[in-house]
Design a protein that fits this description.
The protein is α/β, with parallel strands linked by helices. Helix content is 30%, strand content 24%.
Length: 284
């Protein structure tokens, strides 16, 4: 064979970025995490529960762009979360910022390289289900990808499945854990389908009517690329949305500031839920 044989192939740029990001953290965090937690808009305060934290700004991780959205601090925080070794991503990257799907998925690929077994994704979402109210927590039991992008396109990244099964993207056993904990603690926990759109503009009333007919209960602009990559590695995933507003409300307007305020009001019940569930998730 020529120089194109397997032994001589050039490393895929995605794999190179993962290697460089992991090397940039070498010796800095001092743990092998069990849980990875990605925090959505306005939810960064959850990271304050990490004990013995080591914080690394995204700007100090090779291949990570700075976080460019209000409500996303842009830091990786490693330490103990309810007694479990965890890495918390305080903010994420979005396709609407102009990033490629590879960049959006880089944090979760890094978490997998660091050793996580469970991925927890959180986000702020507009409510479509008419029974939902601002401040509700929604356990994601399925999603609809209308972002126009998939992070698995292109060359297959090492250890990722080419065609991952997405019949249960969110782990049923983990969902049972969260529902049980919520019931025990009196935390109202909705359950529904999350739809991901590209953004950054909010949805029109006609679009909300369409999504309602599609079966979506909440809509946002993130999360799905991370879940797809995690499932391509066989990582267990659980997802939680903060319902921040009635999407495309008939009266009034929607703003990012409103979304952040609603997220911050929901931080405490979310944190209580995560702290109680984490030791149970670690046993999986």
């Amino acid at each position: 064979m020529s120089g194109a044989d397997a032994g001589d192939r050039r490393r895929d740029p995605v794999e190179t970025r993962i290697d460089e990001a992991a090397a940039g953290l070498s010796g800095r965090i001092g743990i092998r995490p069990v849980i990875g937690l990605i925090l959505g808009s306005g939810l960064g305060e959850v990271a304050s529960a990490v004990e013995r934290p080591t914080a690394v700004p995204y700007t100090e991780i090779p291949g990570f762009p700075p976080s460019g959205v209000a409500g996303h601090a842009g830091r990786l925080i490693a330490g103990d979360f309810a007694g479990v070794a965890a890495v918390v991503m305080q903010g994420r990257f979005h396709l609407y910022e102009g990033h490629s799907a590879d960049v959006v998925a880089l944090p979760v690929r890094l978490l997998i390289r660091l050793g996580i077994r469970v991925l927890v994704v959180t986000n702020a979402a507009g409510g479509i289900n008419r029974r939902f109210h601002a401040g509700d927590l929604m356990l994601i039991d399925d999603h609809i990808n209308l972002m126009g992008a998939n992070p698995l396109t292109g060359p297959v990244v090492a250890d990722e499945q080419r065609f991952p099964d997405m019949s249960s993207p969110y782990d049923p056993d983990l969902m049972d854990v969260f529902e049980r904990v919520a019931l025990e603690r009196g935390i109202r926990l909705r359950r529904g389908v999350y739809c991901a759109l590209l953004g950054p503009s909010y949805e029109t009333p006609a679009e909300i009517r369409m999504l309602d007919r599609f079966g979506a209960d909440a809509v946002g602009m993130s999360t799905v690329p991370e879940v797809i990559v995690a499932r391509a590695h066989g990582i267990r995933v659980v997802g939680l949305s903060i319902v921040t507003n009635a999407a495309a409300a008939a009266t009034g307007t929607v703003s990012h500031e409103e979304v952040l305020r609603a997220s911050q009001r929901a931080v405490q019940p979310l944190l209580e839920l995560l702290l109680a569930a984490s030791p149970l998730m670690a046993s999986f």
